[in-house]
C-alpha cells in the first residue's frame, strides 16, 4: 500500500470505533489525514493513533471535505443522516450500521467470502452484522464443497455487541448481584449478570427478533444463494467479548466430519480444531480469525453435522472486517 488515504472515523469513541483505530494502526493502513468524529457529548475527547493525539469533533456539513474513506461505527439513524453527506463529499463509506445492508445497490461484504462484491459499490459498502460475519466465514468453503441446504444456528453473544454501555451494565450488575441488590435491565431487556437473555433487538411479527432476521437475510445475500434456509436463535450471554455459536448444518452432498475438518483447514480466515480441543471466547486474545471446533456428525439426519464457532465480535465481527474492506479497495485482487 504505497498510496496514503485521508480517513474519517465516525463513532470513534465507541467500542467499535476505538477498535477500528487500533486495527488501522496494527495493520499499517496508509492513513494520510485522520479525522475523528463522535456525538456532541463525546466531542473534545482525545484519542491516540500511531503515537499522535487527535481531538474528536462533532459532525458538521464540512466534516468530510477532502476525506477519501470514512468508517462509520454508529447507529442506523446517524448513518442514515451522515453517510450520504460523506458520499456527496467524495468519500467511500464503510458502514457498520444496519442502515444500508438491505439496499440492493449496496454490497454487503466479508472479504474472505465475497471480496469481488466490493467493487460494485456506489459510494457505500455495508459491513455485515457481527454474528453473520463469523458464520459465513465458517460456512463459505463448506457450501462450495457440500452445497448447504439448511443451517440451524444458536448464538451466544457477548455484551460488547451492545457497545461500551453493554459492558458497563454487565460489570455493574455483577457487583450488584454479589451485593444481593436488585438487578434491572437497561441496555438489555433483562438483567444480564449470571443470566442469558434470548432476545437481541425487537421482536418482529414473525416471532423472530431483529438479530435473528439479520442473520438469515445477510448470510443469503453474502453467499449469493437464496436456496439456503437459515433458522437463528440469538442469545445474549454474560461474556464481555467474543461471540460463540452452535450450528447444525444440513448439506446436499455427503459431509462426514473428517472431510468437514479438512475443508475448514483450507478456508480463509478459519482456524479449525480437532477433538478434544475446542475454542472458547476467553482464548481469542484479540485474534482476527474465526475458530471452529466440536465438529461431529448429526446422527438424526442424512448429510448433516454440528460445529461450534467462536470469534472476536469487536475485531473480525466489526472493526477488522471493515478495515479489510478498506484494504480491498486500495489493493483489488487480480480476479476482481
UniProtKB/TrEMBL annotation:
The Semialdehyde dehydrogenase NAD-binding domain is annotated at: 6-121
Give the catalysed reaction(s), semicolon-separated: L-aspartate 4-semialdehyde + phosphate + NADP(+) = 4-phospho-L-aspartate + NADPH + H(+)
User: Which GO BP terms, alphabetically?
Assistant: 'de novo' L-methionine biosynthetic process; diaminopimelate biosynthetic process; isoleucine biosynthetic process; lysine biosynthetic process via diaminopimelate; threonine biosynthetic process
Sorted alphabetically, the keyword list is: Amino-acid biosynthesis, Diaminopimelate biosynthesis, Lysine biosynthesis, Methionine biosynthesis, NADP, Oxidoreductase, Threonine biosynthesis
Q: Where does phosphate bind?
A: 101
Q: What is its EC number?
A: 1.2.1.11
- Annotated NADP(+) binding lies at 13-16, 41-42, 160-161, 313
The active site annotation covers: 130 (acyl-thioester intermediate), 243 (proton acceptor)
Q: What range does the record give for the signal peptide?
A: none
Pfam families referenced in this protein's UniProt entry, alphabetically? Semialdhyde_dh (PF01118), Semialdhyde_dhC (PF02774)
Q: Which GO terms describe its molecular function?
A: aspartate-semialdehyde dehydrogenase activity; NAD binding; NADP binding; protein dimerization activity
- Per UniProt, substrate binds at 157, 210, 236
| Top EC group | oxidoreductase
Which pathway is recorded for this entry? Amino-acid biosynthesis; L-threonine biosynthesis; L-threonine from L-aspartate: step 2/5; Amino-acid biosynthesis; L-methionine biosynthesis via de novo pathway; L-homoserine from L-aspartate: step 2/3; Amino-acid biosynthesis; L-lysine biosynthesis via DAP pathway; (S)-tetrahydrodipicolinate from L-aspartate: step 2/4
Kindly list any coiled-coil regions of this protein: none
**What job does the chain carry out?**
Catalyzes the NADPH-dependent formation of L-aspartate-semialdehyde (L-ASA) by the reductive dephosphorylation of L-aspartyl-4-phosphate.
| Record text on subunit structure and interactions | Homodimer.
Q: Which family does it belong to?
A: Belongs to the aspartate-semialdehyde dehydrogenase family.
Protein name in the entry: Aspartate-semialdehyde dehydrogenase
Q: What organism is recorded for this protein? A: Candidatus Wallbacteria bacterium HGW-Wallbacteria-1
Which gene is the coding source of this polypeptide chain?
asd
Amino acid at each position: 500500500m504505497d498510496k496514503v488515504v485521508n480517513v474519517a472515523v465516525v463513532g470513534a469513541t465507541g467500542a467499535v470505533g476505538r477498535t477500528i483505530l487500533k486495527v488501522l494502526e496494527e495493520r499499517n493502513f496508509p492513513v494520510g489525514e485522520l479525522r475523528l468524529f463522535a456525538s456532541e457529548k463525546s466531542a473534545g475527547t482525545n484519542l491516540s493513533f500511531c503515537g499522535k493525539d487527535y481531538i474528536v469533533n462533532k459532525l458538521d456539513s464540512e466534516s468530510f471535505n477532502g476525506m477519501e474513506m470514512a468508517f462509520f461505527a454508529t447507529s442506523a439513524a446517524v448513518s442514515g443522516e451522515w453517510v450520504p453527506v460523506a458520499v456527496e463529499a467524495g468519500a467511500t463509506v464503510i458502514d457498520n450500521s444496519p442502515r444500508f445492508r438491505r439496499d440492493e445497490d449496496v454490497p454487503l461484504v466479508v472479504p474472505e467470502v465475497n471480496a469481488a462484491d466490493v467493487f460494485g459499490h456506489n459510494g457505500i459498502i455495508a459491513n455485515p452484522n457481527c454474528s453473520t460475519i463469523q458464520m459465513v466465514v465458517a460456512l463459505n468453503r463448506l457450501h462450495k464443497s457440500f452445497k448447504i441446504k439448511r443451517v440451524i444456528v444458536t448464538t451466544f453473544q457477548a455484551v460488547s455487541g451492545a457497545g461500551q454501555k453493554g459492558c458497563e451494565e454487565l460489570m455493574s450488575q455483577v457487583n450488584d448481584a454479589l451485593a444481593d441488590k436488585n438487578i434491572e435491565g437497561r441496555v438489555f431487556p433483562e438483567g444480564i449478570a449470571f443470566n442469558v437473555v434470548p432476545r437481541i433487538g425487537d421482536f418482529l411479527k414473525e416471532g423472530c427478533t431483529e438479530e435473528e432476521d439479520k442473520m438469515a437475510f445477510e448470510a443469503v445475500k453474502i453467499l449469493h444463494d437464496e436456496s439456503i434456509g437459515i433458522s437463528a436463535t440469538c442469545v445474549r450471554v454474560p461474556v464481555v467479548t467474543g461471540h460463540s455459536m452452535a450450528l447444525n448444518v444440513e448439506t446436499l452432498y455427503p459431509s462426514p466430519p473428517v472431510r468437514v475438518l479438512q475443508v475448514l483447514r483450507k478456508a480463509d480466515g478459519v482456524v479449525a480444531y480437532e477433538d478434544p480441543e475446542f475454542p472458547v471466547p476467553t482464548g481469542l486474545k484479540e485474534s482476527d480469525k474465526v475458530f471452529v471446533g466440536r465438529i461431529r456428525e448429526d446422527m438424526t439426519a442424512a448429510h448433516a453435522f454440528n460445529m461450534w464457532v467462536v470469534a472476536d465480535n469487536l475485531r473480525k465481527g466489526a472493526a477488522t472486517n471493515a478495515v479489510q474492506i478498506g484494504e480491498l479497495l486500495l489493493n483489488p485482487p487480480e480476479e476482481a
